[in-house]
Write a structure and sequence with these properties.
InterPro entries: Asp23. Belongs to the asp23 family. Helix 1 (14-26) runs antiparallel to helix 2. The termini are far apart. The protein has two helices and seven strands. Helices cover 29% and strands 39% of the residues. The longest helix has 20 residues, at 80-99. The protein has one domain: Cation efflux protein, cytoplasmic domain (Alpha-Beta Plaits, 2-Layer Sandwich). The strands form two sheets. Strands 3, 4, 5, 6 and 7 form a five-stranded mixed beta sheet that branches. Strands 1-2 form a two-stranded antiparallel ribbon.
Length: 115
C-alpha cells in the first residue's frame, strides 16, 4: 500500500498488515491461534506464531482502505459471537492506529474449535 502526503511517500508491505493483524487477533480472549486449511487433506491446522500470516488475507480497496479476512481456531466453550466481535474491534483499532490506514471490513471465519 502506498500513502502520499506533502512530505513524500510511505509504502507499507503486505507482511506488515498480516503481522499486525495476526498479532492483534491472537491476543484476543478465546482465540487459540490462526488457522489454515490444508490443500492435500482438507483438514484445518493451527499455525505457529512464526507462520500465522497464512491465516490472514488483506485486500486493498480503491478508496485507500483495506479489507481483512481472518481464519481462526477458538477455544471450546467460548461465546463465538462475542469472540468474533472482540476480534473485529481489536483488529480494526490496532491496524488503523499502527499503520494509519482505515479498515473497511474485518471478516472472521471460525475454522475449528479446540479442546
Amino acid at each position: 500500500m502506498k500513502l502520499q502526503n506533502d512530505l513524500g511517500e510511505i509504502r507499507i508491505s503486505s507482511e506488515v498488515f498480516t503481522a499486525v493483524t495476526g498479532s492483534a487477533a491472537t491476543n484476543c480472549y478465546g482465540v487459540k491461534g490462526m488457522a489454515v486449511r490444508s490443500t492435500t487433506d482438507g483438514l484445518v491446522h493451527l499455525l505457529k506464531r512464526e507462520s500465522m500470516a497464512k491465516g490472514v488475507k488483506v485486500y486493498y480497496n480503491d478508496d485507500g482502505t483495506v479489507a481483512i479476512e481472518l481464519h481462526i481456531i477458538v477455544e471450546n466453550g467460548v461465546n463465538l459471537t462475542a469472540v468474533c466481535h472482540s476480534i473485529m474491534s481489536q483488529v480494526r483499532y490496532v491496524v488503523s492506529s499502527t499503520t494509519g490506514v482505515d479498515v473497511s471490513t474485518v471478516d472472521v471465519y471460525v475454522d475449528s474449535v479446540r479442546f
